Amino acid sequence: xxxxxxxxxxxxxxNEQELFSEYLIENDFTISGFSYGAIKAFEExxxxxxxxxxxxxxxxAFFQTQDKKFKRxxxxxxxxxxxxxxxxxxxxxxxxxxxxxxxxxKLGTYEELEELLMYEWCEEKLQVLLDxxxxxxxxxxxxxxxxxxxxxxxFFKDYATVYYIKEKGHIL
Length: 172
What we know:
It comes from Arcobacter roscoffensis. The protein is α/β, with parallel strands linked by helices.
């Protein structure tokens, strides 16, 4: 049985799954998501009654190790000038490459940014998926300018196959 959606887009993005074609598995039993979309994919995998064999999380939005001040500042900068914030964000997700991500741009909302900054990945929920037989893959870029990929690697390594890719950034 097919899940309602198989790929979830990142903050300020839509239809960017082609950026991950090198890694992305597209079938009826795999759910995937990029950054903010990784949160949505994870939650979908938890709640769906449909069969899920694999969950692919590309550069999951991982901010639980950041302090409240960092999160407040991000929200303040977004509220002050959302377009400038998003332009900077698009530049940072492409780093260290010079990929043009503008064709995938969709202005994000304050609520989405707040949700991704405040989201807490839960070890118990990861274990629930493992107990259901879901294989979890996490893809992280060593040069990610958005998240601390080393801390994300340390968190996910006991629950997932983690691909820590050298010389790659947020969009791998």
